[in-house]
Amino acid sequence: MKATSLVTTGLLSLAISAATAAAPFGAKEDTDYAAKLWQAMDEKQLVGSEAIISTPYTGTHPHGAILDTIDTKVSVGADSGEVIIKRNYGGDDVSKTKVANDPNKYLKAVTVMFKRPGYDAETKDWFWVKYTPDGKILNNPKGVPLAGKVGKGGNAGCVACHKAAPGGDLVFNHDRYK
Q1: The dihedral of CA 154, 159, 162, 166: what is its sign?
Q2: Residue 104's pLDDT is what?
Q3: DSSP string for residues in 117-131
């Protein structure tokens, strides 16, 4: 009986290790790339304390009470592609007017989709990342960095949610990136 239990425990540990090793996001290569992406966006004033903002609008979960979105192109090393930057604002007294007047006071997170050429055909080549306002990568509740194919193959996370976007490009606002 003990031998069976040990074998079962060993197989379970091996399965968990294999699943963790094969996680579709949060690996060092994902976090390294996310750091380069932040730097590229910062250089174009798309993120950071001096970032260009668009018109704030009422948001929805999981992003925030108030949002603003920038949709443009950026280059990360040899990769050049579309980037969608969604700034997530919140706070007890947050409103569109208050965000427009003092965005840095209410900014809680920056979520990004970057169309990385040749990255992953199943996710339409989108690289996903969620940052703090100053560019640190946020973690999920299990401590895994939210960078890469976040939520691929799961029931929650960026890819899992954006699969429901109309048009087949995983983007909710428009269908330009088919």
Answers
A1: negative
A2: 94
A3: TTS-GGGTTEEEEEE
Q: Are 176 and 169 in contact (CB under 8 A)?
A: yes
As a whole-number percent, the residues of the chain with pLDDT over 90 amount to 65
Beta bridge partners of 87: 68, 110
DSSP secondary structure letters along 53-114: ----EE--TTT-SEEEEEEEEEEETTEEEEEEEEEEE--TT--HHHHHH-HHHHEEEEEEEE
Q: How far apart are CA 71 and CA 82, in angstroms?
A: 7
Structure tokens at 65: 């009470």
Residue among 92, 126, 119 nearest 108 (CA):
92
Which pLDDT score, from 0 to 100, does residue 22 have? 54
DSSP string, 3-36: HHHHHHHHHHHHHHHHHHHT-SB--HHHHHHHHH
Across residues 59-64, what is the average pLDDT? 86
Rounded to an integer, the average pLDDT of 9-27 is: 54
C-alpha span between 86 and 161 (Å, rounded) = 15
Q: Model confidence over 92-125: pLDDT tens digits?
A: 899 999 999 999 999 999 999 999 999 999 999 9
Q: Residue 126: beta bridge partners?
A: 115
How far, in Å, CA of 68 to CA of 86, rounded?
6
The strands making up 66-76's β-sheet, listed across from edge to edge, are: 57-58, 66-76, 79-89, 107-115, 126-131, 147-148
